[in-house]
Amino acid sequence: MLGNFQQSHLRIEVEASATAIRDSLLRPALFQQWLWPQRFPPGLPEELHPGLTFTSTIGLVTIHHQVEVADSNCLRLLLSQGIDGFHEWYWGDGWVQSRLEGVSLLPLKLAQTINLLRLREFLAGKQGGKVA
Predict the structure, then answer these.
(1) Which CATH number fits domain 4-125: 3.40.50.150, 3.20.20.370, 3.30.530.20, 3.40.190.10?
(2) What tens digit of pLDDT does each residue of 96-110 get?
(3) Where are the alpha helices (DSSP H) in the chain?
(4) List of the chain residues with pLDDT < 50
(5) Are 89 and 96 in contact (CB under 8 A)?
(6) Angle, nearest 10°, between helix axes 18-26 and 108-125?
(7) CA 124 to chain centroid
(8) What is the reported pLDDT for 1?
């Protein structure tokens, strides 16, 4: 894999319940709304679950995802191709944190920061984090 080893660990406060955050991270119909311009394949299940694999794209870069953990307060994805590493998410009422490590040519910390801010805006736009 070409690129540099990068790691980033960010935590932000959000005005949302743990359930709303969970749904925004584990339900493809929701995370596709705030993870733009990343594109996901059609036919994903209603909710991510351990063992699920799928591929997303950002421009010309393809990223393969394998869901390792998906539960009430944690999501862990193993990444390959455009990013060789992992992405972990943890959350609770009013907060979310993201840990990303991998080798990539992409600016991972910048992308992670933008995604967290988009998630916060998305949750704020869903009536104080009450995502249906």
Answers:
(1) 3.30.530.20
(2) 999 999 999 989 999
(3) 18-26, 28-34, 108-125
(4) 128-129, 131-132
(5) yes
(6) 120
(7) 17
(8) 65
pTM for the full predicted model: 0.91
First-to-last C-alpha distance (Å) of the chain: 40
DSSP letter string, 7-73:
EEEEEEE-SS-HHHHHHHHH-HHHHHHHSTT-B--TT--SS--TT-EEEEEETTEEEEEEEEEESSS
* Domain edges within the chain: 4-125
What the block records as the tokens of 79 is 């990444």
DSSP annotation of 74 reads E
| 37 preceded by a cis bond (ω within 30 of 0) | yes
How many Å apart are CA 68 and CA 87, to the nearest integer? 10
Question: In the chain, what percentage of residues exceed pLDDT 70?
Answer: 95
